């Protein structure tokens, strides 16, 4: 699914109204019904009252329609409307008229004195403002947001938390701190960025029947990676394949005291489906990987590497950043130019991670040796060392897209919603993964997965998008037998089998 700007989201609503055709009031009803079904299905509502706060725009109209639908299901509701003397939108007025026969429990808030008392078990719904906000909140609206945030009650936001801006930072005013956000119809950029995480809580995308033609015909450089997209990239195995079919990968990783990074990357590479794997490790450490990963071969001399034997290489985890590591990375990147990728793929021979990224950041001359189509996997601090600081997450996204195009590489900017920025200027936000994956070694696992997919002939863009999705999905699958607190990087590797099965692995042609 594409990620549209605020104006594009509103244009999608208008396009649906015009081309379905459907009345705007009916589209609002769909949105309210989707929210109602989610609330009834996910909240223990018996004996609890829903306190719904509305302004007089269409987001408030959604709130009024939701109130009516909940009342029709015998859920107690109290409605509060911010009153500034205007009538509100036509659809707001229509929903208010439809609500009056069901309840008189409607309070118009004209001052702070009208802010209600909220019982401990209150279900608070924020239906104040939607995606059209372009400046910080002020006055009574800001006061109400501060009041709700200070109530200590969990808040459920409709479409966007009030005060959160779609396409730019929301600094300068208060923002609703929602426990859940029910976003309507499509993802919004502001709901994908870590700096807004304190405001949107858990995000739930609710389809409301928007016309798919608009999405197909409207350009956007950003999209989210969902199961449908990942399955479109995935290549099932042929029953007549053999280990040579799936490529030979070289992983350059590990050093004294950091061989775990190599072991994790190696296990992940093997679990990603690579045919053969060789590890380039210090001689005195080779026994570790030969014992821990018997399926892999080991080399201890970079001079023994024959580039023609490999389809892809990964470099960086656990190497260190001393002069010896710098020399090794420089030599390995020099060898990368001689690796021949699978026929029909465009570049995509190298994954650069961890210490190799830090060395690249402090030794810019290495850029000349980075092949086009390489995959770089920085976390935000490594990204800053490579490309400089960003003022906020919005700017960091723009920088990632620009730098991927400039260097003709794929940048995997790691985070909860990892962004894959590609040379053609497009970006993919990942939708799998969980907080348990914030653990040492998780990045080494991702490096192994990406290296394995490259060796199997996936183009670098597809390898990055699919690999990041699988990495997160494996972490999610691992929670079948672990908690977020107990999840380890090894557990992520162990979840790869279930992840591939979910994606469609095991099917033969």
How would you describe the overall organization of this protein?
With 509 residues, the protein is α/β, with parallel strands linked by helices. It has 2 domains: 215 residues, YjeF N-terminal domain (Rossmann fold, 3-Layer(aba) Sandwich), CATH 3.40.50; 266 residues, Ribokinase (UDP-N-acetylmuramoyl-L-alanine:D-glutamate ligase, 3-Layer(aba) Sandwich), CATH 3.40.1190. Helix content is 39%, strand content 14%. The protein has a 10-stranded mixed sheet, sandwiched between helices. It has a 7-stranded parallel sheet with strand order 3-2-1-4-5-6-7, sandwiched between helices. It is elongated and about 80 Å long.
Terminal residue distance: 28 Å
Tell me the Rg in angstroms: 26 Å
Count of DSSP H/I helices: 18
CATH superfamily of the largest domain: Ribokinase
Low-confidence stretches: none
**Which structural class fits the helix and strand makeup?**
alpha/beta
């Amino acid at each position: 699914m594409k990620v549209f700007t605020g104006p594009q989201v509103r244009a999608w609503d208008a396009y649906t109204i015009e081309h379905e055709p459907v009345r705007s009031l009916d589209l609002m009803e769909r949105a309210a019904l989707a929210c109602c079904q989610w609330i009834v299905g996910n909240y223990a509502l018996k004996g609890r009252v829903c306190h719904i706060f509305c302004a007089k725009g269409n987001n408030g109209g959604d709130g009024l329609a939701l109130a009516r639908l909940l009342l029709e299901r015998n859920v107690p509701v109290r409605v509060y409307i911010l009153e500034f003397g205007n009538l509100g939108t036509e659809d707001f007025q229509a929903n208010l008229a439809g609500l009056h026969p069901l309840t008189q429990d409607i309070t118009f808030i004209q001052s702070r004195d009208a802010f209600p008392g909220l019982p401990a078990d209150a279900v608070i719904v924020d239906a104040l403002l939607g995606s059209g906000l372009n400046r910080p909140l002020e006055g009574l609206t800001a006061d109400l947001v501060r009041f709700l945030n200070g109530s200590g009650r969990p808040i459920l936001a409709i479409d966007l938390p009030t005060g959160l801006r779609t396409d730019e930072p929301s600094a300068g005013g208060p923002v609703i701190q929602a426990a859940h956000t029910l976003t309507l119809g499509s993802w919004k950029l502001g709901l994908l960025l870590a700096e807004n995480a304190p405001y949107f809580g858990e995000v739930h995308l609710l389809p409301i029947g928007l016309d798919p033609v608009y999405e197909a015909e409207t350009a956007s450089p950003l999209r989210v990676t969902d199961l449908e997209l990942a399955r479109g990239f995935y290549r099932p195995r042929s029953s007549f394949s053999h280990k040579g079919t799936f490529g030979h990968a070289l992983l350059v990783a590990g050093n004294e005291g950091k061989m775990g990074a190599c072991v994790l990357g190696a296990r992940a590479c093997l679990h990603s489906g690579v045919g053969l794997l060789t590890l380039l490790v210090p001689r005195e450490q080779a026994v570790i990987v030969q014992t821990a990963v018997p399926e892999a071969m080991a080399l201890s001399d970079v001079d023994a590497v024959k580039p023609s034997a490999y389809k892809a290489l990964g470099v960086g985890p656990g190497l260190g950043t001393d002069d010896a590591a710098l020399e090794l990375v420089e030599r390995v990147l020099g060898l990368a130019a001689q690796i021949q990728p699978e026929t029909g793929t465009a570049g995509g021979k190298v994954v650069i991670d961890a210490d190799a990224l830090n060395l690249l950041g402090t030794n810019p001359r290495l850029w000349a040796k980075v092949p086009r189509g390489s995959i770089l996997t920085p976390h935000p601090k490594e990204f800053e060392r490579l490309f400089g600081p960003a003022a906020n997450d919005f700017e960091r996204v723009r920088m990632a897209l620009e730098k991927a195009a400039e260097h003709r590489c794929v940048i995997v900017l790691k985070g909860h919603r990892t962004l894959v920025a590609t040379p053609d200027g497009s970006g993919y936000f990942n939708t799998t993964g969980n907080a348990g994956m914030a653990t040492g070694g998780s990045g080494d696992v991702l490096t192994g997965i990406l290296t394995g997919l490259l060796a199997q002939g996936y183009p670098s863009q597809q390898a990055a998008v699919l690999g990041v999705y699988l990495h997160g999905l494996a972490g999610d699958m691992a929670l079948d037998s672990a908690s977020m607190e107990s999840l380890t990087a090894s557990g992520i590797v162990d979840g790869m089998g279930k992840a591939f099965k979910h994606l469609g692995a095991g099917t033969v042609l």
